[in-house]
Predict the 3D structure of the following.
Amino acid sequence: MVAFVRARLDEEDRIARAAGGDSWRTPPDLPGEVHDRVGGIAFSVRMRGYEHHIARQDPSRTLRRIETNRVIVDEYAEVAALDTDSPAEDRPSGRAVGLGFAVRQMAAEHADHPEYKASWLPRYSR
């Protein structure tokens, strides 16, 4: 599962970099406006509410999200062997289950991918 999530993050990283990386952005207070690195308006998209979605999808924001997700995946990789349905009642096991839940959620985002495995579905317990 770790390799699967890392591969999806790598794919998304490549796409964001190919789309300009940090060479353009959409300012949060100006949704629909796409600015170049020095702040000039490169183009504007203002129609049917698309601008708010587009403003949240600029490559630099995507790259920041990918980096934060990689931290979670790397932390999980260190304790993944302890992620079981019946964890021990200790800190490492609790950490593994908690991080495992987060990484399973990341994997589930790609449930339509041919390499996704149903066994990676997030576990829910109360």
